[in-house]
Structure to design on (920 residues):
């Protein structure tokens, strides 16, 4: 590279001193920088591979029907015949209920904010700011909310419904933010066309905007639910940390969930518990991976390019 | 509605507000109600933290809480100094940040500036899946895989404890890398292509474009990503509960000690059968309030930064 | 059309007084700005031989031959989609940045093949700068925008302040911004931003400046300032400009190349060079019917 220090236009003025273009300078810094960046990415993915491989190897002996046919136990003598059935059913109950609570509320909030709210009003801006902030509140603080208010003051106790309400509130911001993005992606012209035909605001939303936004919303919904599915911290405060030996049968049953049961097993010192924990982790990761793949598939297949 | 023959002109009618549409109002009311839930949640959090915390500080002085170096509410000699928990939290957060920032930003620069579009399209969703792995899994990995490895490789005889802040911090760092990388990549992708072209036209190399134009251009967005990552590390519970232990008797001066953080103390305390309204039970809320204030400040900072970033380019 | 007897603008006077004397070869009566007579020496700076440009499988430009002379302003005109910007971007290898873009044929710079394997595209852009359609100042201070190029190219600059001042004066921007050099470049008006981008390009001392519709985002007053500047700069620099504005081409350029899109036997559209001559000839007596139709506004 030239090291001219002369003022501008020096090349134009001195064409004879033009060095050749072909002196391709080797730039070791460039190569090193790129390698360093690749290294960063590689490390991130290497840990993922290590994490999954480790869980699979460690849990390999316990990846059999015992996992979902047998109940958990805290007794070392019985651990060979133990599984996590009550945690699987508990998870299904809690997550099913969470979906039933948080999806309607989240989507309705998103519709309000995107289609109805006048966002020059202070209260609507506050609402928006509040949702952003809520998204960053640590999950264990939601556990405190559940413990102090829902379980004790409202009196729902340590039950399936308390857990579902707390997890719903926890992932509500995720649902709202994803649904709003999906609504925002629907072009304004569609709404204008509908209004111009004399449709009301709700008719426009219900018949034109929502159908177009469904793929984006379902992606967001699945991602939100998979976050709820993996969440353990708030449920520790809500009485889930026990080796429960029965499946929940009502909203007011005691319960446990997969992540909590994994935590429970990790706490036990014997290696058999660790193996069972690893097997349960593999099960949890398989479920999450399936959900995430579904979300990505929906996003790629159905999302319209306007 | 009157029957209208297609094509035939509609009889002229008044456009004055005649028809009421009660359905529309009801629906709007329902939507507003749904939106209010999130406000109610915030109020609920504040209320459920505030009252027990006030009660707690009725019995323990705020000065003891802030300056005390022992946190032993579950011992016979009860002391309520939050410093051990704070220092434990800071260790883990610091270690996590030191790991996650270079890795996350490096990965983001690669994805945004170097990777081919196809590669980026493949890797970005994987990164997002990675960000969704439950933290209890990271905790397990830290305790049963990383920590034995760490103890084996440790150069001095003063080996890390069975549970320690260092391994929790490392696992936490790995956990927030995808979050930082994904958000930072978003910020870098939002830097207009025209700026890159301008820089290339001035004979910049790829590295110069990345480090002198894209990174400074996306800086507030990148910082917001880091702040959000730090906030996640600060508020994360399961990794520390599993991998760092629950010891609270004194300030952990070294990261190879096992010690509780604010979150793991809350999780640990809640597992015992605490009588409601006992002072021990109230500690959960006092520490929870402290944690909430810290993360609230960080989130507010991150939101401001993102807004500033948007102002530059939108 | 333009006024051929337009006076050299005031900015030129203030600028030239602070500049070192330009090379004598460049001194041609400035009033005859669109006279079209080749000025300077006849040295060819850039030469395109049977240039074909592809984006993936799509051939955007087909069979272009032309030469660009030193210290001239060469305008590339034509309807949109005719490949004129693509040709411009092939002159400093900006097309390298588009995945799948490929140039076949020869583009030579003082006889050196720009696309030879051993050629460093960074070195190419060091000699052949570019100004874009929309002003794209970096979100940094005015000063840092100018200093960026010298810094990244590793120029040994004894006095950066001086270099910044010279570049700003050269771009006729100094008087407007001398007191706010440390302020953000984004606070400038569009026209000022574009002149800043020109100053930024000058600061690395290129020989050629490519301009891709530099005035399309500007109002008429800002446009006229840029045109004056271009004319002034052509004493020291070789300028190639793409413009959709025929009057602009007629006003500022010495030579004009007319491109259009043609449909080939397979029904695919390619950009082609139809006619290349002095601006005077193209606008008063074009050889090709299609050129005449375009010039007179009958198509495009």
């Amino acid at each position: 590279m030239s090291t001219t220090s002369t003022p501008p236009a020096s090349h134009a003025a001195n064409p004879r001193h033009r060095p050749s273009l072909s002196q391709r300078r080797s730039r070791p810094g460039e190569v090193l920088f790129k390698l360093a960046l690749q290294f960063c990415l590689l490390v991130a993915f290497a840990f993922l591979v290590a994490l999954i491989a480790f869980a699979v190897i460690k849990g390999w002996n316990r990846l059999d029907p015992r996992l979902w046919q047998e109940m958990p136990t805290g007794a070392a003598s019985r651990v060979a015949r133990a599984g996590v059935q009550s945690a699987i059913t508990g998870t299904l109950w809690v997550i099913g209920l969470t979906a039933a609570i948080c999806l309607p509320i989240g989507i309705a909030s998103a519709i309000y904010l995107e289609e109805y709210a006048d966002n020059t009003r202070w209260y609507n801006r506050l609402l928006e700011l509040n949702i952003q902030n809520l998204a960053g509140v640590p999950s264990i603080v939601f556990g405190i909310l559940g413990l102090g208010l829902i379980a004790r003051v409202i009196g729902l106790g340590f039950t399936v419904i308390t857990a579902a309400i707390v997890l719903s509130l926890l992932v509500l911001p995720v649902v709202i933010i994803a649904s709003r993005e999906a609504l925002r992606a629907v072009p304004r012209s569609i709404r204008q066309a509908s209004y111009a035909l004399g449709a009301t605001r709700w008719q426009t939303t219900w018949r034109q905007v929502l159908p177009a936004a469904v793929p984006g919303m379902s992606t967001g919904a699945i991602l939100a639910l998979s976050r709820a599915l993996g969440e353990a911290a708030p449920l520790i405060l809500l009485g889930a940390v026990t080796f429960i030996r029965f499946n929940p049968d009502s909203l007011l049953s005691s319960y446990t969930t997969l992540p909590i049961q994994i935590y429970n097993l990790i706490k036990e010192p014997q290696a058999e518990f660790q193996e069972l924990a690893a097997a349960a982790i593999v099960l949890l990761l398989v479920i999450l991976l399936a959900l995430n793949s579904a979300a990505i598939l929906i996003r790629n297949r159905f999302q319209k390019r306007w | 509605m009157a029957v209208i023959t297609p094509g035939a002109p509609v009889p002229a009618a008044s456009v004055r507000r005649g028809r009421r549409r009660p359905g529309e109002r009801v629906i709007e009311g329902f939507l507003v109600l749904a939106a209010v839930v999130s406000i109610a949640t915030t109020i609920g959090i504040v209320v459920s933290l505030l009252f027990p915390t006030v009660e707690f500080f009725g019995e323990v002085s705020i000065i003891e809480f802030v300056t005390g170096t022992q946190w032993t509410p579950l011992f016979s000699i009860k002391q309520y100094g939050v410093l051990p928990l704070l220092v434990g939290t800071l260790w883990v957060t610091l270690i996590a940040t030191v790991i996650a920032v270079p890795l996350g930003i490096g990965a983001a620069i690669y994805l945004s500036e170097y990777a081919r579009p196809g590669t980026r399209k493949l890797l970005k969703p994987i990164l997002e899946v990675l960000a969704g792995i439950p933290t209890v899994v990271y905790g397990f990995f830290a305790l049963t895989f990383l920590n034995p490895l760490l103890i084996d490789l440790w150069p001095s005889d003063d080996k890390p404890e069975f549970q320690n802040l260092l391994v929790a911090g490392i696992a936490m760092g790995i956990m927030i890398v995808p979050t930082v990388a994904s958000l930072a990549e978003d910020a870098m992708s939002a830097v207009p292509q025209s700026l890159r072209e301008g820089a290339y036209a001035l004979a910049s190399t790829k590295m110069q474009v990345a480090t002198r134009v894209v990174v400074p251009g996306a800086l507030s967005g990148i910082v917001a990503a880091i702040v959000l990552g730090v906030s996640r590390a600060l508020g994360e519970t399961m990794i520390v509960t599993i991998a760092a232990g629950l010891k609270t008797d004194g300030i952990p001066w070294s990261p190879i000690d096992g010690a509780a953080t604010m979150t793991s103390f809350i999780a640990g305390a809640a597992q015992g059968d605490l009588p409601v309204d006992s002072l021990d039970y109230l500690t959960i809320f006092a520490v929870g309030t402290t944690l909430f204030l810290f993360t609230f400040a960080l989130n507010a900072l991150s939101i401001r930064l993102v807004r500033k970033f948007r102002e530059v380019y939108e | 059309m333009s006024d051929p007897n337009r006076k050299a603008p005031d900015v030129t006077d203030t600028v030239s007084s602070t500049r070192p004397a330009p090379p004598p070869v460049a001194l041609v009566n400035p009033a005859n700005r669109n006279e079209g007579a080749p000025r300077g020496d006849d040295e060819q700076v850039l030469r395109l031989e049977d240039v074909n440009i592809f984006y993936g499988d799509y051939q955007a430009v087909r069979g272009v031959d032309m030469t660009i002379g030193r210290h001239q302003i060469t305008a590339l005109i034509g309807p949109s989609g005719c490949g004129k910007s693509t040709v411009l971007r092939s002159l400093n290898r900006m097309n390298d940045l588009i995945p799948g873009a490929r140039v076949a044929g020869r583009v030579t710079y003082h006889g050196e093949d720009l696309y030879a394997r051993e050629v460093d595209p960074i070195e190419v852009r060091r000699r052949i700068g570019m100004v874009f359609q929309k002003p794209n100042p970096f979100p940094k201070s005015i000063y840092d925008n100018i200093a960026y190029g010298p810094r990244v190219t590793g120029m040994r600059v004894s006095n950066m302040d001086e270099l910044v001042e010279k570049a700003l004066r050269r771009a006729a921007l100094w008087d407007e911004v001398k007191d706010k050099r440390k302020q953000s470049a984004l606070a400038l008006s569009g026209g000022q931003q574009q002149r800043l981008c020109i100053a930024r390009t000058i600061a690395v001392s290129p020989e050629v400046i490519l301009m891709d519709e530099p005035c399309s985002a500007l109002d008429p007053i800002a446009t006229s300032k840029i045109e004056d500047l271009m004319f002034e700069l052509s004493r020291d620099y070789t300028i190639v400009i793409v413009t959709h504005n025929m009057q602009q081409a007629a006003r500022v350029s010495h030579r004009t190349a007319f491109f259009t899109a043609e449909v080939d036997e397979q029904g695919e559209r390619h950009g082609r060079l139809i006619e290349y001559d002095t601006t005077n000839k193209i606008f008063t007596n074009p050889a090709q019917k299609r050129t005449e139709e375009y010039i007179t506004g009958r198509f495009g």
